[in-house]
Amino acid sequence: MVNKKGFLRTIESLISVILILIVLLIIVPKEAPEKKEPEIINSAHSYILNTILYSEDHRKCTLEVNLDGVTVGNTRTNCNNIPCKECKEFNCGIGKPDLIINALNTAKAPGFITECLVCETTPRDRSCIFPKELPTTDIYVDDVLLTQGNEERLVRLFSYTQ
Length: 162
Fold this sequence. Notes:
By secondary structure, this protein is of the alpha+beta class. The protein has two domains: 1-30; 39-161, no CATH class. The chain is built from four helices and six strands; from the N terminus they run H-H-H-E-E-E-H-E-E-E. The protein has helices at residues 2-27, 39-54, 56-64, 99-106; strands at residues 70-72, 75-77, 84-86, 112-120, 139-148, 151-161. The strands form two sheets. A four-stranded antiparallel sheet has the order 3-4-6-5. Strand 1 (70-72) and strand 2 (75-77) form a beta hairpin. Helix 2 crosses helix 3 (56-64). The longest helix is centred in the first third of the chain and has 26 residues, at 2-27. The protein is elongated and about 95 Å long. The model is unreliable at 70-76 (pLDDT under 50).
């Protein structure tokens, strides 16, 4: 008789533990796994941004280029009312007009399109929004802030699948 009571209490405790685990698994909200940036994008962005940040010619080109807006069709527009320019429109004027484009092409990630945008920013406003519509696929964004005196330029890269 004593053995039956111990056996029943053991089964009762196991059932209660299982029920508690089931309730916890149902009640605890399930988080979606965070998507990580592909390594190929990470290395391409690092190369491009480090080249612009540490190369004297690239840095000078980025800081001294005239950011007079992006031409879309026949309309000249800015990026959220901030002077900006796509990197493919750069003309550095220092005898090396294709510096930024060459850096983008050198680190091109296969299967991805990388767009580059340079915006004139202030400490209060660093919103640098791409002026044209990007696809609805996953978009990976990285940026670097360049400063020289009172000049601030934000270089932002957008990569997405083709």
